[in-house]
Design brief:
heterodimer, A: mainly alpha, two-stranded antiparallel ribbon, globular, B: alpha/beta, 2 domains, 13 strands
């Protein structure tokens, strides 16, 4: 029988599945779940049209007894946005954890290694250069394909002479720069009205999100997020170095492409839903590490909860502070999150 | 309840039912390239998703929209571009920007019709949850064509025909006074601090085309929506050069230095005092804009001394 330290909990979610977790990790997960629920509730009651908490509660749970107008505001406009914000934030945060772990680089994030830029550039092509070729409903699929294409290029180039984390990051940075320049060119020389719409989307806007997109995002998130979490042991070993991981049975030639694929799916589906929310993938894992260090079993869900909180907060502030003027969530996120991130990083002990 | 009270209750019920049936909205089907939409025959509360074209045109048709998008900086009041200096906008509710109108504010207005531009088609599904949403083909059709659709939509075709009548008269009068308009070249552009673009706002390009005026070769070879270096300005020289300034953005002052340059002063249009500098927001993309711009050109070309290169 394994003897566990006192601060470890033994959880048995399914028969023959036993998880060992630190009680502090569980406590933080519960704290951030409560925080996310609070932020979601606040988001549901806040907007251009103020609806009290009590009334919102009624509208959510007994919509048939409430006026259509209010039901529409909550059910068709606010809730899809909130759910999409939470899912995108969580997806980007998990993608950030994966990328930071497989590259063993604290600066790695979906925005840095080109996947986000690939999805964005593809969306811009279909929004600005050939706007009427693809129906609006299919644009997210194009963004995903763009993200995948860039990821395949990065992987092919970085693993040609054997995989190296630093090479993957540097090639990603190069491709990001190239695609950013291309996007800038489209923005500068495109039809002004189309560019304005594209800019709103590029800023990370959830304005156009509908239930259909939430459902699609949910599927991508649940599948990829669960698979990513199931790889927590491999991630724990990969951060210790390829040799250590290999000695414990983790073959990076198989595991890393799979993890990269998961991060691409999470990033591309998020970009397709909400545009570019670059900062979340970087900041959420760093905040989460303050609470659970590099234990990926807790780090992945905790980062997801923090990422979700950040994007819901950013979107709610963006649509209410200067209402009815809508600021993109991505923009608010950077404005609010960057100073906090700087303070957080400056307080980190030297490692 | 006695018989008298029952009778009163019965009559109140009957009157209530009658008033309800009288208020029931009469609907019809409106169709254009963006699809079929069931719309009210006489819409009472219209939300416009573009101030500089749709809101202006609605006011010109004598219809006061209940809500409109506007331009707004973070700490300033919203500005209904091209509208508020021509019409009383009191009671016109600001519903956000044309890129991302606030659905909650629109929903609270309880509109019975929402009208938008071609690039707002992606908002149609969501806005249709609030009210019938019609997208007008403002890019693929001329102002006259989409304004005609809008007039039909809001039941103001008679007023539109008056506008069309006036516009056609100006064009006819111009052609009577200038028998060979194709011999006159016109460049419409916007000069910024370090570049320029070929744009004719307020329906200017449509008026120039309707009048039969021609464009210089440099203009025809160039692309619209591209920022050209100021060094290329001489390629755009024409009998008339039309630039516009935006009072809200201080563009007159920002481009003053360039207009003092030798390069600028050497242009034929400038040397012959045929450079026209219009207020960019005076006329919107509307029938009123076409009429206003047409009068301006008629006056500048036919009602004063005018020179051509040829």
């Amino acid at each position: 029988m394994n003897m566990l330290p006192a601060h470890f909990l033994r959880i048995k979610p399914f028969p023959r599945v036993v998880l060992h977790a630190r009680s502090s990790d569980i406590a933080w997960l519960i704290c951030f779940t409560i925080l996310l629920l609070s932020v979601l509730l606040w988001g549901a009651t806040t907007g251009s049209y103020q609806i009290s908490l009590f009334k919102s509660w009624h509208i959510i749970f007994t919509p048939e007894s409430e006026p259509d107008k209010l039901v529409r505001v909550i059910w068709e406009f606010r809730l899809p946005r909130l759910f999409a914000a939470a899912l995108c934030g969580a997806a980007l945060a998990i993608a950030g954890v994966i990328l930071q772990s497989i590259t063993r680089n604290a600066l790695a994030s979906p925005g840095l290694i080109g996947v986000e830029a690939g999805a964005s550039a593809t969306m811009l092509i279909f929004m600005v250069i050939i706007p009427e070729v693809i129906p609006a409903l299919w644009l997210p699929v194009c963004a995903m394909l763009g993200g995948f294409f860039v990821a395949v290029c990065i992987w092919a180039l970085s693993s040609r002479a054997g995989y190296s984390p630093i090479r993957l990051v540097l090639i990603g940075v190069g491709i990001t720069s190239m695609l950013s320049a291309f996007s800038e060119m489209l923005i500068t020389y495109g039809d002004i009205e189309l560019v304005e719409s594209a800019l709103m989307w590029l800023g990370g806007s959830l304005h156009q999100v509908s239930w259909l997109q939430v459902e699609a995002m949910m599927i991508w998130f649940v599948v990829s997020g669960t698979l990513a979490w199931l790889c927590f042991r491999q991630l724990n070993l990969l951060v210790l170095g390829d040799k250590v991981a290999f000695s414990r049975g983790v073959d990076n030639r198989k595991v890393i492409p799979f993890l990269l694929l998961l991060s691409v799916v999470l990033t591309s589906s998020s970009v397709a839903t909400a545009g570019t929310l670059t900062f979340v993938g970087l900041i959420a894992p760093h905040i989460a590490r303050r609470f659970c260090s590099d234990r990926h079993g807790a780090l992945i869900p905790l980062s997801a909860l923090i990422g979700a909180c950040l994007v819901v907060l950013g979107d709610t502030l963006g649509r209410t502070v200067f209402s009815p003027l809508q600021l993109p969530a991505g923009l608010v996120l950077v404005l609010v999150g960057a100073p906090y991130f700087i303070i957080l990083m400056s307080r980190l002990r030297k490692t | 309840m006695n018989i008298f009270q029952k009778l009163i209750a019965f009559f109140i019920g009957v009157i209530g039912l009658m008033s309800f049936s009288l208020q029931a909205t009469e609907m019809r089907v409106f169709e254009n390239k963006f699809g079929k939409v069931e719309v009210p025959v006489k819409p009472q509360c219209i939300v416009s998703l573009h101030d500089f074209s749709l809101t202006i045109q609605l006011f010109e048709l004598g219809v006061r929209p209940c809500g409109s998008v506007a331009r707004k900086k973070l700490w300033s009041d919203p500005s209904f571009r091209g509208v508020q200096h021509r019409f009383n906008t009191e009671g016109l509710v600001y519903v956000g920007s044309h890129k991302s109108p606030d659905e909650e504010v629109i929903s609270m207005l309880e509109p019975d019709l929402i009208v938008g531009l071609y690039y707002q088609e992606k908002l149609k599904n969501k806005l249709s949850l609030i009210a019938p949403t019609v997208i007008l083909p403002t890019k693929s059709k001329s102002i006259k064509e989409w304004a005609s659709q809008l007039a039909d939509l809001v039941g103001q075709s008679a007023r539109f025909k008056d506008q069309q009548e006036e516009y056609n008269w100006i064009i006819g009068e111009f052609k009577r006074l200038v028998p060979e308009p194709e011999k006159i070249t016109v460049t419409t552009l916007e000069i910024y601090e370090d570049n320029f673009q070929l744009i004719g706002r307020g329906g200017l390009d449509e008026v120039i085309s309707d009048m039969g005026l021609s464009r210089p070769t440099g203009y025809l070879d160039a692309k619209k929506g591209v920022n050209y270096s100021l060094e290329r300005i001489s390629d755009m020289d024409a009998d008339i050069i039309i630039d516009t300034y935006e009072p809200l953005l201080n563009t007159r002052e920002d481009t003053k230095a360039f207009r003092r340059s030798v390069q600028w002063k050497n242009l034929f249009a400038v040397q012959n005092n045929q450079f026209l500098y219009f207020n960019r927001s005076r006329y919107g993309d509307s029938m009123g804009g076409l009429i206003g711009s047409a009068y301006l050109l008629l006056s500048h070309i036919t009602e004063r001394e005018f020179k051509t290169k040829k």
